[in-house]
Each structure stands twice: as C-alpha cells, then as structure tokens.
Fold this protein.
Amino acid sequence: MARRQYRFQVFRFDPEKEEHPYFSSYSLEMDESQTVLGALMEIQDRLDSSLAFRYSCRGAVCGSCGLTVNGSLVLACRTLLSRLPRGIITVEPLPNLEIEKDLVVDMSPFWRAYQEVRPWLHSLDLAPDREYRVSERERSRIDRFVNCILCACCYGACPAVSQHPDYLGPAALAKLYRFVGDTRDRRGYEHLRRADGPQGAWGCHDVFRCTKVCPKEVRPSDGIAALRLRMIASRLRRKA
C-alpha cells in the first residue's frame, strides 16, 4: 500500500506533574497498511519518547491496547489507518477509568469487578474420577463469552459504569455467564447474589453500547440478559 502523511492529536496527561490534560500534535509518514498502534510506536520511537500507552501481543489477543480513536472505542492493534477518515486522527484513553499517564488508565476497578464474580468453574467434585463431558450444543451456548479478551472497551462504553462506579460492568457479567452457563459449573445462588441487584445484572441500562464496541463480538448484553433469566428462575425455585 502507498505511504502518506498522517496527523495525530494525542491525549496527554501526567497527574503527578500536570494539573490539566492537553493534546499533542504529531505528523509522520506511514504506510496505509499500518495500525494506530504502529503509529503510536513510531511516534514514541521517532518523535516523543515520553508518550505512554499500553500494548503487548499486537495481535488482538491480549486486550491491552484498548483506546478511543476518533471517538470510537477500539483495539489500537487492529485499527488500520487505511480505514480511518482522512484528516486528524484523535487518540484518547478509555473512558470510565482514571488516567495514570497519557493513554494508560488504571484498570483496578475493572479487575476488582472481574474478581468479584469469581470467574472460574465451581465444581462439587474437587477431584472427579474422569473428565467432564460437554456436548457441542452445550458448548455453543457459551462459546462467544469464552472469546472475551478483557480489553475493557465495553467497560469504557457503558453508561451504567459512568453513573454508578460500583456497577460490575459488562465484561464481568458476561464472564460470569460464561461460567454459569457452563454445564460443568455447580455454583449455587449464593455465588450469584452479588450480581443479582442494581450493581449487577439489573443495573444494565440496555443501551447495548457494550455489544457495539466489543472487538470480539462477545455481545455482553446477551450474557446479561441470560443472567437475568437464570436469577429469576433461581428465585422461583427457592420460593417453591
């Protein structure tokens, strides 16, 4: 592909040294086949070594490089320059998370919510005699939720998170359903209790931004809806 000049406007802020955020402008020649992450690496290598951003795998697997590009929440490593409108490319951090430096955000609230749903299989048998068998049909129900890479794009897009900091968020709730919907999981209602309230599945505003921005097409809103059905069924069983 051809090379051309690109202009970037990048969010900058170091809370330890600066009172207010600002934008820095950069211009560099790049191949159109490059990604936004590639451009940020070029800026850091050639123009401004002080620029901070997060990345790891560069292959849309680790979820580290979630950013806001031209107002859209994306993975920087899979956002091609050739697919962006011509003009200034604005790069900002994920919303709903505090800034550590420049494009790096504090992921602690996201990880706390994730840990709170206890995202692992809860089995009644600590040491089963043989492996569990899961049919293709049973596995297909949770396949999409297994694909979550915890990039926090859905967390940044969620209006419920922005209004209620104690809300668990789409990723944690979708991951909870990934295990609740697994036929090998045997957790009781007590493990669902934290998510059965306004801070959990019932706090979702059903705006579906999480589903729109998910780079892996997980559709967290579907997982939240399925959780609600499970919780209603659990309540009815306990009252019967």
